[in-house]
Amino acid sequence: MRDTRESRLLLVLLIAVAFALITVDIRGGEDSPVDGARQGAATVFGPIESGVSAAVDPVGNAVSAIRDSGERHDRLAALEKENAALKTRLGSDDRSRSRLKQLDKMLKIAGQGQYGIKGAEVIAIGAAQGFSWTITVDVGANDGIKRDMTVLNGEGLVGRVTTVGPNTATVLLASDPDFTVGTRMESGDELGFASGQGDRPLRVELLNGKAEVKKGDRLVTFGSQADRPFVPGVPVGVVSRVDPSGGGLTRTLYVTPYVGFTKLDIVGVVVEAPKKNPRDTVLPPKPKPTPRPTVTVTVTPSAEAPVDGQNQQEQ
After folding, report:
1. Distance from C-alpha of 48 to C-alpha of 39, rounded to nearest angstrom
2. Alpha-carbon gap, residue 235 to 102, rounded angstroms
3. How far apart are CA 109 and CA 235, in angstroms?
4. Which one-letter DSSP state was computed for residue 280?
5. 172 close to 162: Cβ distance less than 8 angstroms
6. I need a surface site. Which of 109, 153, 211, 302 has the fewest CB within 10 A?
């Protein structure tokens, strides 16, 4: 349409009519005279609007889905982070419980033997120091640690202190081939010397070649002069094998140590020896034997078997 005086006049007229209809519709309320026309327009254009809405809504839904997906992703990441933190905390709690259990057992041994101990944590193993069977603990001269002190844990004898620094100390383990400790048999009082054999049982040479020893017998430390390097009464291990006596001056035993040298964590250095030899009081209670059920079998003669007299008559 060209921009003429007539077209501008028509546009102004249409606008005036539109305002007039809007005014009439508002004033008429529910009884508006244009309500019928509006319903008719809705009937005609409603399906078209629904179709357009149906075409447009997936786009809007997709945008919402992307936005929600981002929120879900952030929430999932947060949950995964929380779970990781929880697992770490639980793992830490498990370790703490294990260490508390070790400490409790060690304090029990110290109480039974009346040993004054300084608790320590294993912070290194022997390979870093050139030894095969040593550990480093986080206590040293500043903590009152000296060379040739006994080291134990909640199971029994761990070793002895060999080198002391200001804040750390090196411990030679009882499993080291260069390690030797005097031992005493439980109850029988037979004396001997135990030597380390690496990951194999300790080798014990009893001074009495005719000593009566059997598998399952237990040994403790005999103790040293002035209680260094070894205090008396610390559990050493259980006899696992006895070599047949060959009439020699000594008798050889193989002893499974109480301590697991490959899983040391919390240990105690004995800084004060007991005033009295605890002898066997520190040994753990002996395991109770498991009873074996006895099965009795009774043989009942078969009713169909002929007796001897019947066999003779038939013959």
Report:
1. 15
2. 16
3. 9
4. T
5. yes
6. 302
The residue behind tokens 């000296």 is 146
Measure Cα distances from 238 to 110, 183, 185 in Å.
20, 12, 10
Cα angle vertex 269, ends 186, 122, to 5°? 110
CB 271 within 8 A of CB 228: no
- Sequence-distant (6+) residues with CB within 8 A of 227 are 150, 273
Q: How far is CA 265 from CA 72, 148, 173, 200, 229, in A?
A: 43, 20, 13, 21, 21
CB 233, CB 278: distance < 8 Å: yes
- Residue 100 has, within 13 A of its CA and on its CB side, a CA count of 6
Sign of CA dihedral 169, 175, 181, 185: positive
- pTM of the full structure: 0.64
Structure tokens at 257: 């140590």
Task: State the Cα–Cα distance between residues 43 and 32, nearest whole angstrom.
Answer: 18
Rounded distance between C-alpha atoms, residue 220 and residue 279, angstroms: 8
Question: In sequence order, what are the residues at sequence separation of 6 or more whose Cβ sits closer than 8 angstroms to the Cβ of residue 15?
Answer: none
Expressed in percent and rounded to 5, the helix, strand and coil fractions of the chain are 40, 25, 35
Q: Tokens 């004054």 sit at which residue?
A: 116
Q: Residue-wise pLDDT tens for the chain (315 aa)?
A: 555 666 666 666 666 666 555 555 555 555 555 555 545 544 444 444 445 444 444 444 544 554 455 565 676 676 667 666 655 655 567 778 888 889 999 999 999 999 999 999 999 987 545 557 999 999 999 999 999 999 999 999 999 999 999 999 999 999 999 999 999 999 888 999 999 999 899 999 999 988 889 999 999 999 999 999 999 999 999 999 998 876 677 889 999 999 999 889 999 999 999 999 999 999 998 877 666 666 666 666 655 555 554 554 444
- C-alpha–C-alpha distance, residues 53 and 304, integer Å: 97
